[in-house]
Every structure is written in C-alpha cells, then in structure tokens.
Amino acid sequence: MYCYDFHVVLQEVPGEVSLCFTISGCPLRCEGCHSPFLWKEGSGRLLTFATYKDILYRYRGFATCVLFMGGEWHPNTLADFLKYAQETGYATCLYTGLNAVPESLARYLTWIKTGPWDASRGGLGSPDTNQRFTEVATQKNLNHLFHKKTRL
Ligand code: SF4
C-alpha cells in the first residue's frame, strides 16, 4: 500500500487522537471527489510494515486510534495492518466510499465510515448525508457525533 500522507487528527474519529494514513489508488471515482490526487495507485510512499510498526510504537500513550482513509482495495494488507493496531492496543477506523466491506476487514475495525461522496447530500456533519459512521460491534449509527451543536 502507498501512503499519500500521514497526520495526527482529532476530528475524524470523535473522542480519539488518531494516526491517519491516507492510502492512494482509490478506484471509486465519486463525482466531485475532493481528493482526485488519491486516484493514482502508487502516489506517495510505500507504507512498509516496518515503518507502520515504528509509527505505532512512537505514538503509543499519546494517540488512541489508527485510522485508514481508504486502502480497502488492498484487503489482505489492510487487514494485517488493522489487526496489528488492535493487538498493540489501538482502536481502529476505516473511512471508505463503499457501502460495506468484507467481514475479513470489518472484524478488525472499531468504527467505519461508509458511503461514497455525494455533494448534494454532504458529509457526516450534514443531516441529509448518505454516509454513515458506525460502531462496528453494535452496528450503531453514530452520525450524531458529527452534528454541530447549536448554542442557545
Ligand atoms: S471514495 Fe473518497 S477519494 Fe475515493 S473517489 Fe470517492 S471521494 Fe474520492
């Protein structure tokens, strides 16, 4: 898997400090995609297992979750990476444009964001969104965690 970029993020998984790996090669081609630079397989740097392990080790005790933006098109590699994250004490999350992923991936996920980008319906913060943020173990929809609180 090639990683286009890596950041520590605070908003994408509510309540978690997440190590966010953005994977290149997205085959979905959503109309109005906000990140078409991710379509080309091989963009960025090869994310070796050794590099990945080193990053997870360095952030232990600070970060709490490992988040993949895409990568489900490398199901075996992604499953291995997620499994390792769980074994080392991290929660895990995948943002995918698919509406579902195989059980071989879902079993290593704490949360999943599903659904393609649809500009007319907006992202997770929109009440009209087609996307869904799910707690995998319970299948609970947690979209409400992304809605902005209005002040009275
Ligand atoms: S899933 Fe995301 S990166 Fe892939 S085409 Fe859709 S909006 Fe773009």
UniProtKB/TrEMBL annotation:
Keywords of the record: Iron, Iron-sulfur, Metal-binding, S-adenosyl-L-methionine
A Pfam entry, by short name: Fer4_12
SUPFAM superfamilies recorded: Radical SAM enzymes
Cofactor (UniProt): [4Fe-4S] cluster
Keyword Iron-sulfur carried by entry: yes
InterPro entries reported for this sequence: Aldolase_TIM, Anaer_RNR_activator, rSAM, rSAM_sf
Keyword Methyltransferase appears in the UniProt entry: no
Name of the protein in question: Anaerobic ribonucleoside-triphosphate reductase activating protein
Lineage: Bacteria, Pseudomonadati, Bacteroidota, Flavobacteriia, Flavobacteriales
